[in-house]
Every structure is written in C-alpha cells, then in structure tokens.
Amino acid sequence: MKKIDKKNKIVKNLKLKESLDRFVTYYTGETINGIPYGKGTSETYDYVKGIDEKVHKIKGKKWVNNYQKSFLKKLKYHNIESKYVGEWKNGMENGIGELIVYHGPDYFINYDGSPKVFSKSIGYFIDGKKNGEFKEYLDLDETDHILLMQMNSRRF
Fold first, then answer.
1. What residues make up the domain containing 120?
2. How many separate domains does the chain show?
C-alpha cells in the first residue's frame, strides 16, 4: 500500500474558481496538498466588463485603493461580492463559518469608503452549503440597524 504524504501549508491568495467571466474566488489559509483544509478565508470578486471599468475610472485611484484596502487580493476593476471565514474540508466550506455578502459599490459603501455589508450568516456548513440553524444579520437601512433572525436553512 502506497503512503500518501499530506503536506500541510498555509497559502495566500490561492485561486479557487472562476465562473462566467464575471466571478473569481481567492483563498488564504490552511491547505493539505494545495487544497483548502482547516481554517481559512475566501473572497469572491465580481467584475462586469465595461461597467466596473467605467465606475473605477470615474471614481479614481484614491477611491479604488480605499475601497479595496482590506481585500485579500486587489484586482483591477473588481468589487467584492462575498467573503467566507471559517472551517474548510476538501476545498469546500465545511464546519463553523461566517458568510458575508456585500452591497455593490454602485449602491452603498461605508463612510470610510470600505464595502458595506448586505448580510451576514453564521452557522454550520457542509460541502459548501448552509446546514441547520443560522444566525442571519440583515442590513435594514442606511442607519446601520441590524435585524437578528434565527432561520432554518433546510427550508430553502
């Protein structure tokens, strides 16, 4: 029987997936054999050709730098769509984690220019999907009121 050598490593900005020439996801955290496994963070970035280029050019370099200051990966003309912080297994969200979804910068940003949170879900993930009860925090309006709801993701 052949022994499998599991190489544990912490990586920064590992490209996980790219879809529809619009979304791209990067991961920073623990891996085994180059696959996310353990604790880590991923961010998914959105890019709409033509529109995001125009917005970033009109707003200027200072605005873009301020907006992207806390991103894992700074990509030209890209905006953050979502972020997952938590446990991973075999390249998928698996275990306790927090999923944050952001408003597009063309709708809302914070006073300091950083991305504004649209919703936050905290709970248990299995194979990249919500499982069981989650704490859901939803942005209600521009005064930053937060609504806490207990939701069972199995209903969806």
1. 8-155
2. 1
